[in-house]
Amino acid sequence: MSDTRDGKLKGSIGVVGIVFLVIAAAAPLTAIGGALPIMIATGNGAGAPMAYILAALVLLVFSVGYAAMSSHMTDTGAFYAYVGKGLGENVGLGAAGLALLTYTAIQAGIYGLAASTLQSLVVSYGGPDLPWWLWALVLIGIVSVLGYRSIDLGAKVLGVLLVLEIGIVLALSIAVFAQGGAEGIDVRSFTPDAFLSGSPGIALMFAVASFIGFEATAIYGEEAKDPKRTVPIATYAAVIVIGAVYAVSSWAVVLAFGSNSVADAAAEDPAGLTFAAAAQFLGAAWSDIIQIMLITSLFAALLAFHNAISRYVFALARRGAAPTVLARTHARHGSPHVGSIFQTVSAVLVVGVFAVAGADPILQLFTWMSGLATVSILVLMILTGVAIYTFFARTRVDSRPWHTKIAPVLGTLGLLVILGFVLDNFTLLIGGSSTTAAILLVIVVIFFTAGLLRGFSTRRSRSTTAVAGQRAAESESGELIP
């Protein structure tokens, strides 16, 4: 295995490539086909599309400070590096713990959903009825091969899948708008009354969860052609594109059944809501195509999160907070290939635990891990918002009030409000018991605390090494050591 220890990633990915990677992680078709029907069915009804717009606005404001800070540092650790820069290395490592938990959890959950969906699809076409975990292993194997190689290859694969995915979502939307929906075109979905009449907290939970991965723009900074320009542009572009696709396509699904009838339709068949809309407005064959595209959407998300995790562990290793072998980069591909192998092993272990326990891949693996990732990413983003404000207040390297003070504060406050909604509805979000909810929330605390303690131990180790070196030097010079 060819590798190098220079501790630097190599690549030539541009704005478009990074945006592809980030939007792929958000998995638009998965959100519209999976999360949206649940948002509609659980009480928000026709007002569900407004939740995507509100989530996008909060994240867009948050991105102002995030993008501004990316101009002053380029680091594949992203959130972890930003928190460390603003609030200190110890808190930064606590944030790293949350980041690894977030991406590992959401990826494991998606493996469960993708494997179950693939299993059902194969059976429906007359194929063998194999265990879901076997399909999960197949997906892990394909992702591991692509993740091991250059980020450029992964971006090209995701680019193709993403164009097809967004194409099918837009085709459905255009068909609904062109045919006038079920009851005509109206804008009720974007009125305050529609949004507040249901359960806005639940809708916001799913909306924010659908955006997980947008922050990964900074993770690929070291592999970008011009990071100080590429990362800010890619961040804004990713949030705007994701928000626009979600808002328009979710509105189309609402109109496909009618603003007054969509809630009942979603409650009756949440899993088949989007497919039913496709069958009615595009034709039965398109419904089958969307089901196949859902698999590719989930695969694209898996590859995107795999890349993000491998780069996080690479960043940790480079700082001495993880085994140094994880900081190696491939001599040919320039990728963090050892970190990629580590991520593959961790995915097998997490999925394996649920498989051995006989857990349901959707009701338990997907829902539990998605809920866990949602809380973890919100806490992580709140820490990042505080760190960004602190960094600019301390260094004064940027004097723009909106970018360095107002936007970071407003974005952080918005995230705090959303976190409050999530915690208030967390048991419902994961579809489990209050005991399960409590255990998952404790896991978030454990990962942050473990990272924090790792920071203290790393600093103590460095301090001890420095003192030992100083004493050795003084001893050689014949000086007395106090």
From TrEMBL:
Residue ranges of domain Amino acid permease/ SLC12A in the record: 22-449
Main location per the UniProt record: membrane
Transmembrane regions listed in the UniProt entry: 12-38, 50-69, 90-110, 130-148, 160-182, 202-221, 233-257, 289-309, 338-359, 365-392, 404-423, 429-453
Superkingdom assignment: Bacteria
Membrane topology field: Multi-pass membrane protein
InterPro entries to which the protein is assigned, alphabetical: AA-permease/SLC12A_dom, APC_superfamily
Keywords: Membrane, Transmembrane, Transmembrane helix
Subcellular location: Membrane
Annotated protein name in UniProt: APC family permease
Record organism: Rhodococcus sovatensis
